[in-house]
Design brief:
Rossmann fold; globular; 239 residues; alpha/beta
């Protein structure tokens, strides 16, 4: 816990992610990443010098078989308000539109539902569970599939909605997240999406794994290069 909190706080401080009085929504999909982020932020708020509050928001895609009750119970133990957003995103994509490549549209619809819910709740900052490996994979996806050197930003301000997105786990490797979720027995909700594990990101994840095995330290060096380059808004705040 202390090691994970140290990495999280370093990222939060380096990019000025949290300000005094913030109400921060955590987008909780039910996966290990978002659940770990929820636990870490709920712990950080106990001692962080800038007081802030945390609330959890989960989007139910209407696919059935996804039980968020254990997530709600975890939030109760953490003393974090929990909100479940009911949608029909799954049936729209797979039954009505019969999308063959649904991921981009699905992400857009989920972001829309989540953004609408948090702004209606009066919240204008959301924390997302992207970790270090996600950043490296996104960079390679952009390079390989789009011919661009780009990635999501540690902090992103969305003009249309007035919402800021923060990614406090960017210094934490996926393996550490996996071990944390197992160690603390976090209630991971199985993803019922038919496209799960059959995406371009999964292909890139396998490629990164292979490259890191062949060239030890590949992920660390790539992530460090992203900060030193730096990509847009990846330069750390001067202390």
């Amino acid at each position: 816990m202390q090691h994970m909190l140290s990495l999280l706080r370093s990222c939060v401080d380096d990019y000025g992610m949290i300000r005094s009085g913030d109400r921060i929504a955590v987008g909780v999909s039910g996966g290990k990443d978002s659940l770990t982020l929820l636990v870490l932020l709920s712990e950080l708020k106990k001692f962080y010098p800038q007081p802030f509050e945390v609330e959890a928001f989960s989007v139910d895609m209407g696919l059935g078989g996804m039980d968020f009750d254990p997530v709600a119970a975890l939030c109760e133990r953490l003393n974090v308000p929990f909100h479940k957003i009911e949608t029909q995103i799954g049936p729209i994509l797979f039954e009505h539109r019969k999308e063959k490549n649904p991921c981009s549209l699905c992400a857009k619809m989920r972001r829309g539902a989540l953004g609408k819910a948090i702004t209606e709740a009066g919240i204008h900052k959301i924390a997302l569970g992207h970790h270090r490996d996600d950043a490296v994979e996104t960079l390679l996806m952009s390079l390989i599939y789009e011919g661009r050197i780009s990635c999501f930003e540690p902090v992103t301000y969305l003009d249309r909605s007035g919402v800021s997105q923060i990614r406090p786990m960017l210094y934490i490797p996926e393996q550490a997240v996996r071990h944390f979720a197992e160690r603390f027995e976090l209630p991971v909700v199985h993803n019922r999406c038919p496209a799960d594990k059959h995406t371009k990101r999964e292909e890139i994840k396998e490629l990164v794994y292979e490259l890191n095995g062949r060239y030890p330290g590949f992920k660390d060096k790539t992530f460090g290069a992203m900060q030193r380059y730096p990509l847009t808004n990846w330069g750390r705040e001067k202390k």
